[in-house]
Write a structure and sequence with these properties.
This protein is an alpha/beta fold. It has three domains: about 130 residues, Gyrase A, domain 2 (2-Layer Sandwich); about 130 residues, Four Helix Bundle (Hemerythrin (Met), subunit A) (Up-down Bundle); about 160 residues, Rossmann fold (3-Layer(aba) Sandwich), CATH 3.40.50.300. Helices cover about 45% and strands about 20% of the residues. It contains 17 helices and 14 strands. Strands 4-5-6-3-2-7 form a six-stranded mixed β-sheet. A six-stranded mixed β-sheet has the order 9-10-8-11-12-13, with helices on both faces. A hairpin with a 2-residue loop joins β9 and β10. α5 packs antiparallel against α6 and α15 runs antiparallel to α16. Bound molecules: guanosine-5'-triphosphate and magnesium ion. Magnesium ion binds next to α10.
């Protein structure tokens, strides 16, 4: 290990227990605000600022107390609830205090000022969670999951992050790593004590193969994690007057886009977000695709084409009254060449649904008839490996993905070496590299730079 690396055991020697405090709720007027403090001597430092100092000092492991929070001159700032969590029974693993005050901006400011002039310093983003990691309460995958829950943009993303917070990634990595460590240990004994007759130590190729398969399937889940977190871009396209804006409004449940019987109503694209089957969707209504003399409309069509170019899925709407024309066929073909495309046959309230061409989903954007079927068709195309994601660890961190890939590269090298009969000491280096990369995922081995990069993406107060 190089000198700037640390393990969880170093937390004390690094002096990370200095008292920190921060607002954990938004800086805005609200019913209640939560101010969080953690570190050495927090209870001692806060006691003189509370109307019942002795009670606070004597509070057992987790206690809620009602009283007044005061400035250093004993003037009451607000009536508060103070929650005491004694180490190690706290989020950070240190002594911690949470002050629930009224969610008033002057109250929040005065309490923070008082804390900052009484021995606390403002916490850095993610510093409470960093401490939880340093005191061994959370490994890095769970620490990342905390941030992923906060940032979840759909219920599905939340549930996948909860699964990670429960340790699914940590367990998956540890179980893979454990087997590699066993092999390496035997190899190292042989290298360190060549005079001992340990028998010939071989790296079992089947274990390497199996580990590669397991890591490959874990890394493949990154795509699933991303879709649920970042969402997808869905564009509604079609000729003018097909009913694109009507459908757009139906999906976003409000009259966002202007609907009229004048062809060329939508001249620029309109964007809104919605959720389809747990996936956050950026939905785009586009200008009807047609050749126009009007320069503004032509520009709108150009923009719409570029939106279509960047979409992950296109819903192509045909006006059922006019039917599918050659222009539609050409465009659908062009689009489907590049991205998944769902085709809808609109206005079935006016036309006989039986004439709906094969492959098209007959809908009415006006009455909402059969729009659920369209929604379901969109869902199956945008939610990847739906069943697969259930209960299985799904990664959502580029850091974890990169490290798994690093471990995989090292294991593939190991395999090449083993297959070619390379001496075991040379192969051991690749194996060590794989173990090291896996250890970085959970944070067993880490550096300040890695931690800084990771926790700076957190909210202050978390
Ligand atoms: N009866 C009926 N009318 C519809 C339906 N969908 C849309 N319309 C009508 O068709 C006309 C065009 O609808 P829009 O949603 O503005 O069509 P658009 O595709 O956005 O048109 P442009 O923006 O001009 O390209 C409006 O008068 C809508 O009320 C439908 O399912 N049934
Ligand atoms: Mg429109």
């Amino acid at each position: 290990m190089s000198t700037d690396e640390k393990t969880t055991a170093d937390a004390d020697s690094d002096g990370v227990h200095d008292p920190i405090a921060a607002l954990a709720t938004p800086y805005a007027q609200s019913a209640v605000a939560v101010i969080r403090a953690s570190g050495a001597r927090v209870i001692e430092l806060i006691a003189p600022l509370f109307s019942r100092p002795e009670k606070l000092r004597d509070a057992p492991r987790y206690t809620i107390m009602h009283g007044r929070f005061q400035d250093r001159d004993g003037r009451t700032i607000d009536e508060v609830l103070v929650n005491v969590f004694r180490a190690p029974h706290s989020y950070t693993g240190e002594d911690s205090v949470e002050i629930n005050s009224h969610g008033s901006l002057p109250v929040i400011e005065r309490i923070l000022e008082t804390l900052y002039s009484s021995g606390f310093r403002p916490a850095e983003p993610g510093e409470f969670t960093l401490r939880a990691f340093l005191t061994g309460k959370l490994d890095l995958t769970r620490a990342e999951a905390v941030n992923e829950i906060i940032r979840a943009r759909s219920d599905r993303a939340r549930s996948l992050a909860m699964n990670r917070l429960g340790g699914s990634i940590e367990r998956a990595i540890d179980s893979v790593k454990g087997r590699l460590v066993d092999i390496l240990a035997r190899v190292e004994i042989q290298l360190d004590y060549p005079e001992e007759d340990t028998g010939e130590v071989v790296i079992p190729p089947e274990v390497i193969d199996e580990t590669i398969v397991r890591l490959e399937s874990l890394v493949a889940t990154y795509r699933i994690g991303r879709v649920y977190q970042e969402g997808v871009r869905v564009a509604i396209a079609g000729r003018t007057n097909a009913g694109k804006s009507s459908l757009f409004n139906l999906f976003v449940r409000e009259d966002r886009s202007i609907v009229s019987d004048v062809p060329g109503t939508t001249r620029d694209y309109i964007e809104a977000t919605t959720i389809i089957d747990g996936v956050p969707v950026r939905l785009f209504d586009t200008a009807g695709l047609r050749v126009s003399e009007d320069t503004i409309e032509t520009e709108g069509v150009r923009r719409s084409e570029s939106i279509l170019g960047a979409a992950d899925l296109v819903v192509y709407v045909v006006d059922g009254i006019e039917g599918v024309v050659a222009d539609d066929e050409r465009r659908v073909e062009q689009i489907a060449d590049r991205v998944p495309c769902v085709v809808a046959w609109n206005k079935i309230d006016l036309v006989d649904a039986r004439v709906c061409p094969a492959g098209y989903i007959g809908i009415s954007a006006e009455t909402g008839e059969n729009v659920e079927a369209l929604r379901a068709a969109i869902a199956t195309r945008i939610t990847p490996e739906r069943g697969v994601a259930d209960g299985r660890p799904v990664i959502d961190s580029v850091r974890q993905k990169d490290l798994i890939e690093r471990a995989l590269a090292a294991l593939r090298e190991t395999k090449v070496g083993v297959d070619a009969g390379v001496p075991v000491d040379a192969v051991a280096l690749d194996l060590q590299e794989a173990i090291r990369a896996l250890g970085e995922i959970t944070g067993e081995v880490t550096t300040d730079d890695i931690l800084d990069a990771m926790f700076s993406g957190f909210c202050v107060g978390k």
